[in-house]
Records
---
Amino acid sequence: MQLDRSVIDGHNQQRIKEHQRKFEFVSADVANLDEVLQKLTAFNIAIPSWALGTGGTRFGRFSGGGEPRNLEEKIEDVGLLHALNRSSGAISLHIPWDIPKDYKATRELAAQYGIQFDAVNSNTFQDQPGQALSYKFGSLHHVDPKVRKQAVEHNIEVIRHGVELGSKALTVWLADGSSFPGQLNFRKAFQRTLESLQEIYQALHADWKMLIEYKAFEPSFYSTTIGDWGQSFTLANKLGPKAYTLVDLGHHLANANIEQIVSLLLMEGKLGGFHFNDSKYADDDLTAGSIKPYQLFLIFNELVEGMDARGMDHATGLGWMIDASHNLKDPLEDLMQSVEAIKIAYAQALIVDRDALNTAQEQNDVTQCQEILQQAFRTDVRPLVAQARMTAGGALDPVQLFREAGIRKTLIGSRGEKTVATGL
Amino acid sequence: MQLDRSVIDGHNQQRIKEHQRKFEFVSADVANLDEVLQKLTAFNIAIPSWALGTGGTRFGRFSGGGEPRNLEEKIEDVGLLHALNRSSGAISLHIPWDIPKDYKATRELAAQYGIQFDAVNSNTFQDQPGQALSYKFGSLHHVDPKVRKQAVEHNIEVIRHGVELGSKALTVWLADGSSFPGQLNFRKAFQRTLESLQEIYQALHADWKMLIEYKAFEPSFYSTTIGDWGQSFTLANKLGPKAYTLVDLGHHLANANIEQIVSLLLMEGKLGGFHFNDSKYADDDLTAGSIKPYQLFLIFNELVEGMDARGMDHATGLGWMIDASHNLKDPLEDLMQSVEAIKIAYAQALIVDRDALNTAQEQNDVTQCQEILQQAFRTDVRPLVAQARMTAGGALDPVQLFREAGIRKTLIGSRGEKTVATGL
Amino acid sequence: MQLDRSVIDGHNQQRIKEHQRKFEFVSADVANLDEVLQKLTAFNIAIPSWALGTGGTRFGRFSGGGEPRNLEEKIEDVGLLHALNRSSGAISLHIPWDIPKDYKATRELAAQYGIQFDAVNSNTFQDQPGQALSYKFGSLHHVDPKVRKQAVEHNIEVIRHGVELGSKALTVWLADGSSFPGQLNFRKAFQRTLESLQEIYQALHADWKMLIEYKAFEPSFYSTTIGDWGQSFTLANKLGPKAYTLVDLGHHLANANIEQIVSLLLMEGKLGGFHFNDSKYADDDLTAGSIKPYQLFLIFNELVEGMDARGMDHATGLGWMIDASHNLKDPLEDLMQSVEAIKIAYAQALIVDRDALNTAQEQNDVTQCQEILQQAFRTDVRPLVAQARMTAGGALDPVQLFREAGIRKTLIGSRGEKTVATGL
Amino acid sequence: MQLDRSVIDGHNQQRIKEHQRKFEFVSADVANLDEVLQKLTAFNIAIPSWALGTGGTRFGRFSGGGEPRNLEEKIEDVGLLHALNRSSGAISLHIPWDIPKDYKATRELAAQYGIQFDAVNSNTFQDQPGQALSYKFGSLHHVDPKVRKQAVEHNIEVIRHGVELGSKALTVWLADGSSFPGQLNFRKAFQRTLESLQEIYQALHADWKMLIEYKAFEPSFYSTTIGDWGQSFTLANKLGPKAYTLVDLGHHLANANIEQIVSLLLMEGKLGGFHFNDSKYADDDLTAGSIKPYQLFLIFNELVEGMDARGMDHATGLGWMIDASHNLKDPLEDLMQSVEAIKIAYAQALIVDRDALNTAQEQNDVTQCQEILQQAFRTDVRPLVAQARMTAGGALDPVQLFREAGIRKTLIGSRGEKTVATGL
């Protein structure tokens, strides 16, 4: 289904007066209003194809209905999101779950919805039916060169698909690691990983990036071969200028200061992209901003500061993507809540009084530094986000419109009650 | 397959001389040698039926071969373990994965292998095909009384199966919780859980126990309705004398002092049983003793001290069970390594010089307290464990005999390469 | 110094127009505005006497200037805070740091500032000069009955001081624990603690409460004898109706769900009070709301819900206190930031649409539950808090007035640059 | 006091027979016995001068008696340790706590006890009396260039002292960080730190190393400017070949895989040294091996493997040092327990069957990998450590001899009951 423009207009019409009151109130205090609105409008967060269905845990999965059954329906779902919030104009594919059968048709379908193809993702953490060699004991770090070769070739194939669709980046997340002391020679595993990545790097086009994720644990429960930012950063340095570190918010040990990591990677020119989600305990993959919204703001505070210091364009300088799992909520509602939380954090970061903050920092005026950040965070910036969205053609309240318009019901009608999207 | 006695004898014959040398050496320093050997011999750890196949994570599962395809083959596997280590003489069933078709035949099969039926486990964390109402939002804590009723009846049915097989306990582990702030009214959820448990409690026979697990997180990622020992203990107190707390080593927040919890629950007469496993990050369900063997010893140190203080029989006073997941190793090898680690920790705890420890504690002689515990832990007690095992008819080195005898190969031959056991 | 009323009026005059604009905007959407303002006005948070000076870590302390040199100056400081924010109308004394020399004069001084005496705190975690027996190895749990007796008597003496000043509660925080495995018999330590507390409990007046803190670790690094809410709750149950659990936000293992603990303690009628602070890693004792403001809101959400369910008065039903350490900021500024953050969280909790939340919870509408909580949290309630403060005679912006009025400078002038307040 | 050789001989005489029985038993199974004994004999762990007195927490300090009152007595204490265990032949000084008054006399005194001067440590985490500028807001990362200059000069002065005493390394641990979001510009702080370190690096002699510590938190509670191995490693890379990372076991986030970090730093040629201690919750600075002895073994397993792979000499390739705090135990007893635990872990690592481990790793035989490591860890290697110690002239049981000989009593006699050593 494609959302009729009139549905959005009708929704906005009903809310416009109340919205205007709020927007006028908050914008009165925003010195750089035009800049903020322009940047909010330009900001897009890619939707991963695997986040459009209900996720699960190792204990089970409770599917909802109307999940997309194929790549076309996934693009349709992202199109719906983008129509509603005007900030989800890209999809990130996961191979082999989303191998396009006809590149041209796929590109055209996406274009119809205003959707671009973000980073493509390889998958060497599962065995696929008919796969020659198993990834049970890893892929790019594997002791067996034949397994490494298979994994390298898979990544190169993923790049090929991406090239056809117009992607400009390959995201590599490896489950490679060990679950028991002694299982792995850490050093050799790291070096084999480097060599494998070098082979993949050779296949990267000149205008592509390789985004290297790190993760502290899960599914490996003793060590992960690319386990923290230091390891990813070391690999990115050895690989070359097209290699970058990708930060997933849920991939750290408890209490890690992620905003500091972000700042330092930007300083070194090696931050490549972001996977948004939230978590309380481990890699819980919850809705962005649902548990630690202040941390999300602090991260954006560093992103804005650091990108500006390097003269980077906010919208295109880094890869922005959601990577969450929707076990209990409707996936589309959950994604809209994530996008909203991310844009709120971004808006708050944009209104931080940077000159005042710099001055307070130079004076070690800790009280004042806190006042300045909290002033931005405590401001209700939702009307700014809504204004940017409405101006771009989106809905003032995407989640409520999704419900009012009975979109899930329509999807169930067309796709069925018992569909299960490919993915986790 | 049933392991021929002669195979074990042959294996032991080859190792007996070397074993004797070691046993004599270590036993020379053990004042209470007979008691230690007797207790080690009497000690049995139940094997959960779901641990006999390869486990997985939410990212995938890499099955091995020759996994048991039904309850009979699970009993066969536990029988093999027990023949090898003489400490796995019980199986813990999980309903509905292991519903016996013929109680009498099942009992007889188990008896053939010297296997008893330990606590039976209910499952309300997954939906089964054809199930009327979903557990997506919980079971015993559910807002809908019809779902609670379904879950209560399932538990009562599990008790019925257990009664037929000679079990004496019901283990209740609930995934009930919430993944987002606001989702749940904690208080009401707790009270509904209590009421549901009370209904199940009514169905318990006089000589049965109800073992109530707690878990900090996963699969719920914001709150778990029975989330820590204090919550389980409060429920057990309200339920009555047949209700107890069950401690699973992986179900705590990081750094929790589990040994102190064990000690206090024993003090209050409310420790009911144990699920052994090990972990580095979360509920990793690794082989017992593979990550923190000293913690395992410290827990046994409290168990021995606390059970002795109450005059409890070590072998029967509490329910002992492994609850691990074998993602990378052969499940049977993994279980043998777990049982060995548990018995080593138990043996170390048995040789602690308790009088000296009490004296040092009374004198706040912290150095000496540490010396006494480390003296026990650093002692190589493996010959004691092996001696008890051999005397009971088991193998001196179960893992190596499992390999020498080609047991997995035989199982694959009879069951096939591509079997997948029911379970997680 | 006592802040002249005209100073506050002048400050408010300058800001009143801008304030009014904001207050009108936000109050337009608050259905229960009068109730919210009335409750915010009634809400007071006690200031601990030891938080008025610069705190330190084990690595050192960097004192500021003008710290209070005695109890009178501490009362003066709290008086200043209260004059500015009208929400700090109580002081919590720590014996022996704050032994009054003349009860009547102390009471009168406090009354002059509108200050009441909140819970009194005992100190058995340090040795005082001339103390007969050492608390090196604990106090109420000590193996030596003479040490326990000394500690019991100290607590009873603290009660006596409190009675003279009009306090109604004794807060007991014990550092008792162990730093090495084996050092302590957990069970005996717990039972000795219970017996000691029973002796103190006997000395409690009928209208007094005993507030029992728990803490996971520090300064004991292996076990703490009252280590978690379950242990405190068990003691409170055994002691009787005057004994309650006190929750300090920094005293938990990482990732603990404190709001759930709060809810359950309220359910059981055993929540007695609160120590506010914030932390990222351990018991960091940072400014309330400076790290995890959403968690603070979620806790207040449970407090409001739970107190209302029991018909408790918000202002008097529980003991509210700050317990932070100000290592880098001016202590008074830091305290004002804490009080502001606490009142913001409280205001947000007061405007949660409870009927809608209940309905969404009953329907397992997780998306909507989150929308409802975030609607409250994202609202900029600062004008509500400011309005209540101004109406009660306080300043619209306490921190800025503190700076404009040069209060610290005045204090340094009268007290000196190199004063060091008693405390940690 | 200097321990009379005859005291040790007498002690050993009494135990020699029992020792021999045990040594013969265990050495029968050690293929590389001579190598193990030789390496254990050569292995020395430096004692930090500040660990010779009772440590404290922010809540207080409970001093023992007979603590060293000056540098001479600290050397005397290390001399006593070394006489007892023959593995403490070096002292690590902390400036300004241990500024030698007379280099020659100090060197001669140390030589008398067979003590060498290990890495010298600077201190910019405290303000010293009379210090011109404060380190309240950091030192090498400070916003004020004058503070940075003062800190740089202090470090250079520390090097000068070290040169006079024969040290070959400067250890830099910085408390620099922030306790509140916004306080610090992470990027600028990092770059200022780099520049300051570069200035210090210039002053390093050709045969010196700079060892750069990292620490996740404390005393800074929001960010630490050198917060993890990745940050230290990045600095070391930018500084040059004389700069290395130093790993302190207590300076990580919970659950960090330290052994992997060690392996990768060795791989990169940037591991410089080690600070041993143990911890359960944070930087608890407990006795090495008292909480997680298996982790200590796993770290040594990587150290041995990694140093051998680079052909490094175990005894001199890295800097080995204890960095613990002795709050409850006699400091000298505590240090002896630490050294013993470290040598046990080292001995266990030395007897790992590396060829078999390599083979098992190459075959992904996870069960066997675990068997091999556990075989080494479960072996009671204490007789090997004791043999090496005795051969070198030390005591078979240092802690017991320390007690039998009444050494502490003698020290109290000569130094007094109420001495407090400089340090934390």
---
Amino acid sequence: MPKTKILASAQDVENAFYEALERADLELMMSIWADDEEIVCVHPGGPRLIGYVAIRDAWRRIFENGNLFDIHISQLSKVTTPFAVMHSVLEEIRLRSKADLMAPVTATNLYVRGAMGWRMVSHHASPVPPLPTETKSEAPKVLH
Amino acid sequence: MPKTKILASAQDVENAFYEALERADLELMMSIWADDEEIVCVHPGGPRLIGYVAIRDAWRRIFENGNLFDIHISQLSKVTTPFAVMHSVLEEIRLRSKADLMAPVTATNLYVRGAMGWRMVSHHASPVPPLPTETKSEAPKVLH
């Protein structure tokens, strides 16, 4: 796999991340994560997973379910620094077997540039209310 | 307010963030966020909020509810770069009026160092299963 290509920028890592997710490609997925004990992955409604081994194990279980998803990414907000880039995106996830079911999710993705190029170090995804209700003036439904 | 003190490091910003949350102190809360249109805040179960104005408005509404919380932060995982630091924490949030009710939340907090010192640029909080179920081998309950 052309790691030199997919790790050339934070955006390239993000593109590969969602490509791996749509293809249920575990090797591609894990090639874009930093091999680090501090990396974090939170799947929608799931527990917080820490470290490369735990994160790989969770993706393996997800991909083994055999479901294939179509994912539309939109509304990018980003913060860029020399060695770290944060992307906040909205994910519209559709099961290919049930394309009429769409789950809106917001994901905060963090990428860090290291000796090996750019890698994902954090993916935090959680369900959000349907998109029409996402407005800057709406009161959040929250505990805090 | 001693901004020079609370903005001296990412950890200092995080300490001030949770202090502001426990005190329902809107001015302290907003003093630790970057004044930027790209900053992101996701409250548990709420919509994604982008930009200083929207984030301030949401915190104002939350604090105006009059609820006071006790928050216990634990299980920090962090990724550090020269200009950006990511903290992943577990928040145990208790309403002071109902201390027996605890909502476990995981939060991904991103801090960036700029000309004005360290500021929060992203806070993504979402509910997680009860802590005992958070193990590195558990299959996440997820769409993806």
